[in-house]
Amino acid sequence: MKQIYTLNFAFALRSIGSLALILLAGTVTGATQPPAGVDSTRMRRTYEVEAEHSTDLVITAAQLRAINPVNLWDAISFYEPSIGTSWEENQGASPLYGAGEMTLRGSKRWGRDERSKPARPTYVIDGARVDARKFFDMDINDVRRIIIRKDPASLTRYGIRGADGVVEMETFKPVKGAMKIRYSFDGVVEWADLSSYHLMSAAEGLGLLQREGLTTGSAASMQQYLEAGTQTDWPRELTRTVFSHRHKITIDGGDDHVKYALTGRISPANKGVLRGSEKEILGIGAYIEYRYKSFRISNELTYDKVATDSKLFGAFGDYAHTPAWLEPGNGRGGYLKTMGFDDDLRKFENPLYEMSLGSFHRNKTYSVFDNVNMSLDLGAGFALGGRFSYVRDQIRTDTYVSPSSWRYATAPAGTYTGRYGIARSAMQTFDGRLALTYAGQSGRSSYGASLAADLFGGVYNMESYAGVGITTDKMGYISFTQSYDFDTDPYAWRSYDRTAGGTLEAYYAFDDRYEVRASARLDRSSLLAPQNRTALFYGVSVAWNIARESFLRDAGWLDRLTLAAAFGTTGAVDASNADYVVSYGSDIGNEYVYNYYLIGSSITGMPNPSLRWRTGVNRSLSLQAAVARRIDLRVNLYWNDAGDLLTVAPLNQATGYRYNASNGGRIRNSGVEYYLNARVYERPGFSVSFFTAGSHNRNRIEELPAYFAAWYNAGLAADEAPLVEGQSVNAVSAVPSVYDGTVERVTGPATIVGTTDPDLKGNFGVSVNWRQLTFGAAFDYRIGGSIFNQTLYDVQFGSALQTLDRRALQSSLRHAFEGDPARLSRFVERLDALNFSTLQVGYRFRSQLIEKIRLRNLALYVTGNNLFYRSSVDRERGTIYPFSRNVTLSLRATF
Amino acid sequence: MLLACAVTVSCNDWFGITPDGSSVPEDRFFRNENAYLNALTDIYTQLRAESLYGRTLSVGEVEFMGQNFHPTDALQTAAASLDYTNATFAGAIEQTYVDMYRAIAACNNLIEHIETTRVVFNDPDRKHIITGELYGLRAALHFELLRLFHPAWAVDPDFVGLRYMTHFGMTVSEPLSTRAFVERVLADLDRAAEELRDHDPIFAGFSLSSVLPGEIDSRLRTFCMNYYAVRGMRARVCLYMGDYIQAAACAEEVFEHLTLVDKTYQLFHFCAPGEYGDDYSFSREHLFGVSTLPGGFDELTDRLYGEGGAVVTAHYAGLFTDSRDTRYRDWFDNSQPDRVRMSHKFGPQSVLSGYTSTGGSDQVLPCRIPFIKLGEMALICTEALVRQGDADAATAAARLVEMQQARDVTEVADRLTDPAFTTDQLLEYVEREYRRDFFGEGQLFHYYKRLNRTSIPQYDGTERAMTAADYTWPIPAVSVQANQL
Question: CB distance A656–B478 less than 8 Å?
Fold first, then answer.
């Protein structure tokens, strides 16, 4: 066993090249020149044919830049309409959260599972698997292409990592030429988008209190507030307009044998629109590639440091609702610690005071990434490719709550105030792959096959502990604490991911007309249950290029008309190790004999050692047409089944347990996606293009085990909808009510009133090129689907002691209600939204002009992002961190 | 080839790595000998759950089924009326069933590990003690289920119902008949006795030397299933099945502790009047009792039997013929003769005698739940000797007299002076002692059931005719409705 391990490790280290990746994974790792001995045109065609007829989405660097020159997340989620989430997110433009939750082609798990551990696609950079955080912290200028894998046959290759989709990034590699120095600069002016906050004024708020027969605490304090007439605009106090800049320099060049690139990027102290938040990025990278006859080897090493800092620990929405009649200043140029008179019912935290303290929440991430690729052409169509990657991320989070903070204002004397918490987490992964490929041709047919083996080993761990008892505000470090925090025990976990697998693929194409591909993947992983460690997946796709048929071959106007169908299985692991094996946990508080220190360790639950992974059975049909070199249309239809989901199944009580984890259920996502690019007008020096894309996904629970449904629905949280066979996983449930003019009452039990899935979601835009100028405008939209309007809920049930939305002044929206606050169906509204995502003007300087200052290339862009947002639902957006609008000035120069 | 290497060769150890965090997978947990003690301690902790000995099987439902108290709420009424169809009571029965089997499952997993472990225990005795306690617990917990869910031996020894679980997992074994089940119980008890016989520190009594964490504390042996508790359980089981010779022999063996060990170091003995201080539950008589936490069991019994709690029924009147009886004086609040409550026996003022906790601010331990007592051994001795047939009243009653002496009562001793005192009459006195000594402990119902009484005195004063169905708890069906969570 030890021998096998070293053997595997040895081959991984002996990485030999990535030709297989070029041919089969469809990822071009930058080698624009295939090794000698293989017909480059044929190879390229094979790859292009694959990309053409698969339903994967390819986004080029130019497309990304046209939408957002700095934010990779916004750019990618703009293009792929099947990505769910951004609209309802409350994280806004938080620099602390680079990546939101992304689901491709519908939700595949139960709502509660999604909430506790959201499913994310697998993120891959140049073939190496990375964390979502690292993926979205990459510099957008490094990205050559993004490929979003949704095609059934493509996902098969990813085995147990494929069911939630894959997002691949290919980075730029240097090309042959003299040494070039590229410099890019982005200056961003950003301000908060508070258009969704319509808060009452102080006078209106106090008036509401009086109308409802309440006071802030006593008639005297009410009188003082009314007389003082203070009006504090909290959302504006807490947000700011910021200017931030980022720079990147790349030096690259090379010849037929050696190519190199050195990069450095810095984005110093990028402030966020919420006061106190900022993010800083520093990165350096080195790439070197060497070619000798039919052998090629390249190594890329990058080091990144990302640091974020924030000073407010609460949610922006909560601070925004602080009463407007409170005065934050203490009259002497400083801030009050607690706002409110002594006899007030409720006293409020003063976020401006909190921000003036030494408290912080700092996060530093250090990431090292090394990627070695080798390829060797063996002749006669055979090639050997290998890759080895190493990723090491270290994250350190320091949280310091100052002893002067409002949290300790009412702490009894003698308790420790001030808290310093440290959380450290690290991940280290080794990833290796070796592939043998064959490509051949005879007559009008071309064929090929590949066999690949890969090995992945990852270690992930986290530890956190905290100390309390810091005496003054300025001593913000763990060494100044006096004892461990007794309210939060030190906490740690360690987990591992060891997966080995092999892929076998083959393809056959005839006359560029017919093509068939098949692939199979075998995975063996430590993430799977001991009795079910090996998983097998397979996929097949066929394509028919109708345009090359005899009856259409001569139609000059039709460049391509391809009909393709694909079928594939893929998988994902949702269960954790405690679901497979018996685990013991201790309950420190449950001592057997009082004060004799006999602590028991109990079994955490009945495991299921033959638990299976979640399977995905995907089918798709697509039609692609390219007409008159002007119009490019793609329509994809898909039917994806997610099966063997994590459920609970009953057990005989004599086992000691009523149920344990099991597999069951099936969720179907079916839908259609369309992508249209049209060059509407073309003339030398002037062209106008129009693009649009959209998707519609229908999510339906096809099978739901009865016991699991009863168990799940018995333990619903307030905002969870029940699982019902035939309904969507993203259903919204609410309670009907009736308002008779004086009081509103509930008229029935909670029912499903809609789903958060949109009917149609997509984008559209136009781009114009006129000589050196480019102009682009892009919108994204969403039609249909419901959302629970939390603001209306707060308007009805929120306490008048805070500043509420202005609609609280309307008696039709805020009135007496009989019973406990409930999620009423009148709060569920249909969400149609339109976001003006990008407005961009660019200018590329003519070479004659810039040659004089020894520049090869110079381009300037001004981009406005998220300039307006309109939706059918009037609700506060960005309740954790505000959304923002920005204008960016970008400069791209090559020396 | 690489594919074959990486995938088909079962490099199980490489793929078998497990994460750790707030819980530890068992293969990693059991690499240390202290883990076994921790896991065993957890089983005892489970026993004091309210669905097990923390309420239902001791002072709660089963005690109300014995008709000693007037029920005050719906659940107690259902229990006292033996109404197994009542939804709340049926729910409590199902909860007891699941929780008991969960404790048994924990025993089973631990037995599997300790039998096959390669960990070397520093003190070889420890391994035997832990193994012995596990087998003892498994047998005792199964027996508890048997005497609740199966009809009495006298009624139908071939009734098939419960499963004797010896393996932790998702599958259950076949249901067994009472005969086969009892055989398994006895086999486990004998195995436990074998393990504990040469290793249990109880033979030496308790020593006052200090104990390190992780070591088995000789002072706490009666908090665990020690050797004498195992023998006591065997006596109880043998009496249940009618093997009177074995029952008497095992019960007698328990009394050896009183002769082997000096009075100061005995872990259990009869509590003589004036000796027990505030220990109103007479914890020194327990062969094995389940420990409780402050604010748990004592508060519960206060709610059940204290001010505003259940009042004794008509059986109480005339039960304690001697007002010097320590039980009469110390267990009950007799201030209002028509509203007598058992407010002191397990009440908040009752503390364990002779134990001071090793740390913390409280010096004494809260009262303990009796599992099996020395008093029961005396009664088993007497009853078994009588039912064997070849002993006279005086020999048979020897232990009973000793027990009554500790209660400051001379009832049977006085009767023995009468030469016409028959063994049948002696049995009546045994029954009286069952009623007295086990007041509030949930054992009276089992006495009626074992003897298959055709009618029992009900809480409202009437006589209730009993059928086998009345005596037997229905075995819960597999819950497919998921509404019992």
Answer: no
